[in-house]
Amino acid sequence: MLPFRVELRAGESPYRQVVYAATRAVVAGELAAGSTFPSVRELSQALKINPNTAHKVVAELVRSGILEVRPGIGTVVCAGRRRSSEERRQLLSREVEELVVEARRLGLREEELVAAVSARWRELDGGRSAAARSEPAPQRGN
């Protein structure tokens, strides 16, 4: 079993999907620094992808500083710097686009969509205050 979630979609590059899913898991804190990352063989078998594709995924994650190879241990999540708020937001760009398109299809106005997202956020946040979060909310531009 993989330590991160990925659902491969037809018509999209498996390589890009797996790199995205692994990056997202690290940035979101689902994969802790120092935790072991699946081997090329484990990735290819679990996802039923070509081992060459799995190797490219690991190589890209190492190149981008997400993973590091430790001799005798294997591939692990880097303890590197904390990702910026912008980097974390970029990981949601596809989902945000899909949400906006669906909201428009349903005839919702921007304010209604923002209100729905805010309400769901508060529901899932479990009552934690905005002050308890480590970074301030981004300011909306004109």
Model description:
It is built from six helices and two strands; from the N terminus they run H-H-H-E-E-H-H-H. It has 142 residues and is mostly helical. It has two domains: 14-77, Winged helix-like DNA-binding domain superfamily/Winged helix DNA-binding domain (Arc Repressor Mutant, subunit A, Orthogonal Bundle); 92-128. Strands 1-2 form a two-stranded antiparallel sheet.
CATH homology-level superfamily of the largest domain: Winged helix-like DNA-binding domain superfamily/Winged helix DNA-binding domain
Provide the gyration radius in Å.
Answer: 18 Å
How many domains make up the 3D coordinates?
A: 2
Say what the CATH topology of the largest domain is.
Answer: Arc Repressor Mutant, subunit A
The largest β sheet comes out as: 2 strands, antiparallel
| Distance from first to last alpha carbon | 45 Å
* CATH class group of the largest domain: Mainly Alpha
Number of helices: 6
Averaged pLDDT: 85
